[in-house]
Amino acid sequence: MQFLQKFHKLGNEFFFIIGEDGLVFSYFVEGVMKARGFFTNQDIEETKDLRRWLMGDPDAKISIFVDSIDQTYTQRSIPVVGFWGANSLAQNRLQKDHAKQQLKAALPVGRLAKGRRDYVYIFAAASHEGVVGNWLKFLLPFPNIIKGIHLLPIELYSVIEAIKIHPAHKALTNNNTEPAPKDAAKLENKNKLTGENPELSKWELILVNNKSGGFRQVAYCNGTAIFTRLLSSSGTVDDDVIAGNIEQEIISSIEYLRRIAVTDVSSIDLYLIIPDTIKEYLRTNRLGVTSISVYNPHQLSLKLGNADPLTKNKDRYADPSILALFATHKKRIALLHVKETRQVMHVVNALTATTATIYASIPIMGILSLWQLFGVVNGVISLSDIKQQLANLNAQLTAKKQEKNKSESQYGKDVNINTIKEKAYIFSDIEGSLISPLFIIHKVAGISPAIVKIREINWQYDPVREGTEIGKPSNPQNRRRNRAEQNLSLQANANNSTNTLNNKPKLVYKYSGNFTIVFDNSSGNYAELVDKYSDYSRRLIATFPDHSAEISSLPQNFSFSEEETKIKLSVNINFPKIEDVKKRELKL
Amino acid sequence: MIISDIKGYTISRLTPPFVILVITLSILGSIAALHYSYKLGYQTQQVAITKINDEMGKINTEIRQNNEAYIIWQKLLAKQTISNENKGLQTDPVRKIIEDQRIIHKIEKLDTKLSTPRTNPDYSNKFVQLEEAEVTMTFTNFSDANIFAFINELLLKLPGIWQVTSLELSSPETIDENLLNAIRNGTNADVVKAKVEFLWRDFKDIKTEDSPQSGGRRSNARNSR
């Protein structure tokens, strides 16, 4: 911020007090007074130094405090319409009461204690012509911006506030029962704005000796300027006479205050900024105030911590000390403008807002830049890593390609590998379903070959894909139908793929063997026949554990005649087992 | 200052922040562009990695398929029924083998019927199709052992893939003097009657000029054995 202030010379300011006797100026560089002066008129020769200073720092802004005699402070009652409504009404009435170009302000005082409880405003106005107009005409051509015009009597309350806040003053007044100055100010503001506790008023008077105009006396009610008087000191040289005049003026003012007070007066504090030569003649016990604080200009500067090399103990005039205070205390009560300065300030405010926005965006962009920079650094590292990763992968890919070539070279030369692969995969799909009936027949024939002969064989085989019904008894008609259905359902996948088997269900098979066997019963012993039958049944099941194998029952009635020594039975073998089919169906 | 003189002030007031703004924006823009270029580069590399990974996945699959196919192929070559080049169902050699075996095993009354060869749509691939036909044989012999041996020899020696889909076999319930005389005379020896249905399948190579050649090799229809 310091850099910015230096860059834009934001801390450099010119302060002027325009009074009837002339113009007091102070030049502050970053809050420190660098120059001061007094100019009685706008002559080129007279204002040579002032011009030099103004031209020397065209970026320094100007604040003007009007201390002319031509100021009016009028009390106005505004009907109750709520505070903000009252403010608006007061502004409207102010515009009607005074000429357009006049410097004017409406200052809220409080509310009446009784009756309609109207809001009370002080309408302060000063002429923009005369000495003020002349000095404005002088200042406007300079490149310096006039940031505000203020009425000195109104703004002098900053001096009282500064004095009250100072610890030395608190100790001096020794009034611990009162609220702290900041709190008091808050209370006063509260009274002003809301009208609470309107029965009591706190009055403060200040009298300062200014080079620009003379003795400026201002009376404040709850911090608002109620009236002001200017005593010209020109022509009077005796300090005891001046002191007497001051006494008389203060007494008259207090008397006047008591007459115009809208509420009862709780206390009257008096602040005098006068040279020591007058102070020693002043009889303070005659004044009838609650407290008196008297300082010479240099003491005021010391007290407020604004002492600068340019103020001296013998100084008679308080203007430099007051301006030094204004240089550090930026808060103003009423900001006023004439047409020319207002137009410029509108542009300046817009520029300030634009500049502030730009400067505010720079740290954000700085953070974004850092963020992006972080991304760049991260990107460099990541890119390096990923390039390394890519190089490794390329090496792996090369190795894999070599491995692939090796896997292809094992087939030998002049071979179409794709053709072979397709054949291999077709065969692998078929292979599982290739089953020879001779193997089954051989196993059936091997069960008790001495007593059992196979007379007839009917073996049926049907390959199916998983998921189709394989539990149904097989016959040529079913086989043809199954095959046709499979062909239709799988044809959709048989397009343009090097291997159409990838997504197809596994090919399985089912078969059934119906064997007519002849059982040798030459012994004619029924019990022996039953034993042989049982033994054969057991062996049959044991031979085909993963099949459904069953044998027909022995005849219920037969005689032991010649023809019946050979008993014809039927053996059925089915694959897969019914239980396995159910399990498979559940799994699917 | 009056409003007519504000132009110079405006320029002098706005120039420094705008210069700083432009410089800051330039720095930010440059860094952002650099960041973007790195990001783009990273994304490009990532795409390349993804492509390589995909390619490696495909190559791995091909290697696995090659190795698996090689094992199966060796098995097929061992059967001596499949060659490097297949032309589908060839009836002439089949007819000869059946006739040879019929004589060897003394098969009588052999009647062979062949259905029209067709392409199995399950196995209609880019380079290879599977042709199939149903073959029905009826014949007799005095011994079931000869019949089984005949069928077994056919299954072993016939080119292509043969699958018995149906087998019906019956032997007479009684052997009388007439039957024995007939066997002795070599006539009417239909002691055991058999009806066998085969599903005959064989590969048929599809010749295409633009077929992609894995490993840059092209079939010359020569058996590598």
Jot down its keywords.
heterodimer, A: alpha+beta, five-stranded mixed sheet, 18 helices, 17 strands, 44% helix, B: alpha+beta, Alpha-Beta Plaits, 5 strands, 49% helix
Describe the structure.
The complex is a heterodimer of chains A (588) and B (225). Chain A has 588 residues and is of the alpha+beta class. Chain A has helices at residues 2-8, 48-56, 83-97, 130-139, 152-155, 157-165, 167-173, 181-194, 239-260, 276-279, 297-304, 319-328, 339-409, 417-431, 437-445, 476-491, 526-543, 578-587, and strands at 12-19, 23-29, 32-39, 61-67, 71-78, 103-111, 119-126, 146-151, 200-210, 214-221, 224-231, 264-273, 291-295, 452-465, 507-520, 548-551, 566-575. Chain A has a five-stranded mixed beta sheet with strand order 3-2-1-4-8, with helices on both faces. In chain A, strands 11-10-9-12-13 form a five-stranded mixed beta sheet. A four-stranded antiparallel beta sheet of chain A has the order 14-15-17-16. Chain A starts with a helix and ends with a helix. With 225 residues, chain B is an alpha+beta fold. Chain B has two domains: 1-79; 91-205, Alpha-Beta Plaits, CATH 3.30.70. In chain B, strands 1, 2, 3, 4 and 5 form a five-stranded antiparallel beta sheet that branches. In chain B, helix 2 (91-104) packs antiparallel against helix 3. At the A-B interface, helix 13, helix 14, helix 15, strand 14 and helix 16 of A face helix 1, helix 3, strand 4 and strand 5 of B.
